[in-house]
Design brief:
alpha+beta; 57% helix; two-stranded antiparallel sheet; four-stranded mixed beta sheet; 6 strands
Length: 224
C-alpha cells in the first residue's frame, strides 16, 4: 500500500471512530506538518500506521483536556507522545505562561508513564533523516523486545545491534548482544564485526583478540 492511500484510510478510520470535539479536533488539527511527519519520518521506517493515533486526547493534572499530535500505543506496552513543533507557534508566539504550562505538561505526562518526543517542523521538512535516526533511537528498546532474537535479526540485525549499542551508552561486547537477543555468541560476534566493517563501531583488541567494540560518531545520513 502506498503512503497516500494508507494515510487516507488512517484518517477515515479514526474519524469514523470519534464523535464531538475529539472528531472535530482531528479534522482541524491534523494538517500539513502532521501529515509530513508521517510521510517523511514514520512511513519510511515502518511502512505502517498501525497503533498510531492522531490528535490523541489526554488530560493534565487539572483534568484539562489536551491533544497530542500523535500517540503511539503498541499492544504489548509503551506510551509515546509525539509532537510536531513549529517555531512560530511553539516558540516565537508563546508567552511565559504557555511556556511554563508546556514544560509542566510534559513533566506530568512523563510521571504518568508517557515518553514525550518532540520534532521541529524544520527538521521534519528539511532534515527528516535526523528525525528518523532519533525516533529509531528512542523506540529501539521497545522494538528489540517485540520479537524473538531470530525474528529481529532476520529483518535488520545490524540496525538492532547498533540501537542496542546506543542504548547501552558504553562499549558493547558480543555477550551483550547474545544475551539481549537470545542468540549464540558466534552470531553476535559476526553482527558486531559487520558494523565494524561499515565503520560504525571501533574494535578494541586485547589479549588474543577483540574484547569489545566502541561506538563511533554516527552520521545521520548513513544509509543501510
Amino acid at each position: 500500500m502506498e503512503f497516500d492511500e494508507a494515510h487516507n484510510l488512517f484518517i477515515e478510520q479514526h474519524s469514523q471512530a470519534r464523535t464531538g470535539e475529539r472528531k472535530g479536533r482531528l479534522l482541524r488539527g491534523h494538517n500539513f506538518a502532521e501529515k509530513l511527519f508521517l510521510q517523511n519520518v514514520w512511513w519510511p521506517l515502518f511502512e505502517s500506521l498501525e497503533h498510531l493515533h492522531p490528535e490523541y486526547e489526554i488530560y493534565d493534572w487539572n483534568r484539562k483536556s489536551q491533544f497530542l499530535d500523535f500517540a503511539y500505543l503498541p499492544q504489548n506496552g509503551g506510551r509515546f507522545g509525539i509532537e510536531c513543533d513549529g517555531y512560530q507557534s511553539h516558540v516565537k508566539d508563546m508567552d511565559r505562561e504557555k511556556f511554563s504550562y508546556a514544560l509542566n505538561r510534559d513533566t506530568f505526562l512523563t510521571g504518568m508513564g508517557w515518553r514525550m518526543l518532540h520534532f521541529s517542523f524544520d527538521d521534519i521538512q528539511q532534515r527528516p533523516e535526523v528525525c528518523r535516526m532519533l525516533l529509531q533511537l528512542v523506540l529501539a528498546p521497545y522494538l528489540a523486545r517485540k520479537s524473538t532474537g531470530v525474528d529481529i535479526l532476520s529483518l535488520s540485525g545490524e540496525k538492532e545491534v547498533l540501537r542496542l549499542a546506543w542504548r547501552l551508552g558504553r562499549a558493547i561486547r558480543p555477550k551483550d548482544v547474545a544475551d539481549h537477543f537470545s542468540i549464540n555468541f558466534r552470531t553476535a560476534r559476526k553482527l558486531l564485526g559487520g558494523l565494524s566493517d561499515k565503520g560504525l563501531l571501533q574494535p578494541i583488541v586485547g589479549g588474543k583478540g577483540i574484547r569489545y567494540y566502541e561506538l563511533k560518531a554516527i552520521n545521520p545520513d548513513q544509509t543501510w
